[in-house]
Amino acid sequence: MTEIDTSVPHSARIWNYWLGGKDNYPVDEAAGDAYTAVFPGIVTIARGSRAFLGRSIRYLVAEAGVRQFLDVGTGLPTVDNTHEVAQRIAPESRIVYVDNDPLVLAHARALLTSTSEGATAYEDLSLYEPEKILEAATRTLDLSRPTALILSGILGHVADHDQARDIVRRLLAGLPSGSYLSLNEGSRGTDPAYEQAQDAYNETGAVPYFLRPVDQIAAYFEGLDLVEPGLVSVPLWHPEPGDDDPLPIGQHGALGRKP
Known about the structure:
The protein is of the alpha/beta class. It has helices at 11-18, 26-38, 42-62, 82-89, 102-106, 130-137, 161-173, 192-202, 214-218; strands spanning 68-72, 94-99, 119-124, 148-152, 180-188, 212-213, 225-226, 232-233, 251-257. It comes from Streptomyces shaanxiensis.
């Protein structure tokens, strides 16, 4: 297994730190604190993205009747992982997680708990190998049945937008009619302070994450039928009843159904 380097900051561990997780090191806390000193709203972005993921999964299970999930670019386990949210409502749900980060692999056992009625699996594969991902998923999922593809904050790591779109197209091509795409990504056009902080971070030599204009995020949903309210800043997508007057942030998401 690839050695885990704890001497340099790691984006998955920094994200974990912002989410309140424990799977991070002092170097990640220092990098996370340096980022929040410039842009304190990053914690709101991270938690807003995570909350959107939870709400979209609950919609998929309770409203759309989906029981299969393919979560690509999983990241480190925190609270309310995809299988926990889905199986809480429908214990028979089946989930495949995909990531190729040695750190995520080391913690994958936390993703592999499951109800006895359902199943979870972890596949150590790259986002850039859509066909291998689909082939591996068939060990756990029946891809002749509707499946929800989850891409949460991962495509910003793909520098070329056309390549990112191609990855989404190829993954969706392997899923049947009635499947869904749940996607949320960092966006431009809402929060200039976030854009400035992220652009500066990208220049530090860390693994970059590219914020994209909303129309480029919308392009990932080409050919899909968007669930209302469409592509919006994540706090505005199906807010919980207690969420009074949710405010837009620089993170956009949507849920789309494959016709």
